[in-house]
Specification:
Rossmann fold, globular, 365 residues, 6-phosphogluconate dehydrogenase C-terminal fold, Alpha-Beta Plaits, alpha/beta, 6-stranded parallel β-sheet, 3 domains, 13 helices, 47% helix, 17% strand
């Protein structure tokens, strides 16, 4: 347990720091990997009901000790719970029976108000939610940079400032950006960021397939390779549980979405091309405003499919010392162009990249 404040930056500790992780899927294992990379004096004590996951994590050095029994976590000061959302309250309560008030418990679940209803008042709980990762992904999908630059919500309900600061320090060590919200605020954010896109995607997929004509235009590519399909394909059990647990926020967001779709429908019905154009321009402005707020610039660049084309573009930018923050490559059909999305650290880098790439013949937006 932490009787005093620790600095989690590497130093010559006389004793190692033990951090617990329950659930060695993508998110839990990535926490373990990132913490160890940031500070080699941190030991990860892992717990998982999957013996294969435990064995793999231990063999790969992701954890330094592990067991299916939660009692292995006695004496650990902070424990991350990274199990599926429906299982989170049960695991938190089982952990509390083992560690009582000796440890701070935090999680990565997508719903918080329901958890607070199901855990005891005395639990040292700091609810958490990184806006990254895939709830279905296993330990093999974990990587050290999963949380790099990600927004990471931390819940202020029923937690002391000291416990909050301890968890926030570890979140920063992951490379993420912690921000404080109430449980209710979190659940409404989670609905907008997770539940609503998946509901909308499922509806779009179902509507597109309703009359069977999608097959005539290569519908398989649409169903397999679009972001819409990826969202709709999320594990129905987990998505359903998250939606039903967070139903108040989801219903509110669905009403908002229906109102927006109704507005678009009316523009089309009344042949109001100007209104529709303004509506779409406003949506584009919203996207740009979020990029500007974070000091970033995003460009879309068309390149032929193939690693050589991507390599040539990256080398071109590197020679001019234009730094890229992130790259997104949508999955496309064989032989088509990639609409590559490049994220730059500043508008000036973005402007320099656009000028250079345009001169070199790239189609840049």
């Amino acid at each position: 347990m932490f009787k005093k404040k620790f600095s989690y930056t590497p130093r010559d500790y006389t004793k190692s720091i033990n951090i617990g992780v329950v659930g060695l899927g993508q998110k839990g294992a990535a926490i373990a990997i990132a913490l160890r990379r940031a500070n080699p004096y941190i030991n990860i004590i892992g717990a998982d009901s999957d013996a294969d996951a435990l064995e793999y994590a231990f063999a790969e050095g992701i954890i330094q000790l592990g067991n299916a029994n939660l009692k292995i976590l006695r004496g650990v000061g902070i424990i991350f719970v990274a199990v599926p959302a429906p299982d989170t309250p049960r695991v938190l309560n089982e952990l509390y029976e083992v560690v009582r008030k000796e440890a701070i418990l935090t999680d990565v679940s997508g719903v918080k108000e329901q958890i607070l209803k199901e855990i005891p008042e005395g639990m040292r709980y700091v609810g958490g939610r990184p806006f990254v990762g895939d709830d279905r992904a296993c330990v093999l999908a974990a990587r050290a940079d999963l949380y790099e630059g990600a927004s990471y919500a931390l819940i202020t309900d029923r937690t002391s400032s000291g416990d909050y600061d301890e968890v926030a320090a570890l979140v920063k060590l992951l490379g993420a950006k912690p921000f404080a919200v109430s449980a209710r605020q979190h659940d409404y954010l989670a609905s907008k960021a997770g539940c609503l896109p998946k509901i909308s995607a499922a509806a779009l997929i179902t509507a597109a397939a309703s009359d069977g004509t999608m097959a005539e235009i290569g519908g398989g590519d649409f169903f397999r390779n679009t972001a819409v399909a990826s969202a709709a394909a999320a594990d129905p059990r987990f998505v359903s549980a998250e939606i039903m647990t967070n139903r108040a926020a989801v219903l509110s967001d669905m009403d908002t979405l229906i109102n927006e779709l109704t507005a678009v429908k009316n523009y089309i019905k009344t042949d109001n091309a100007g209104g529709l154009t303004d509506y779409l321009n406003n949506a584009s402005s919203i996207i740009r405003s979020y990029a500007d707020e974070e000091g970033r610039e995003i460009l879309s660049v068309e390149i032929p499919v193939g690693s050589a084309s991507l390599s040539a573009l990256l080398k071109l930018l590197a020679r001019r010392q234009i730094e890229i923050r992130d790259i997104y490559i949508p999955r496309q059909r064989e032989g088509s162009l990639h609409n590559l999305r490049l994220v730059f650290r500043s508008p000036s880098d973005g402007a320099a990249a656009k000028e250079l790439l345009t001169k070199k013949g790239y189609n840049v937006n």
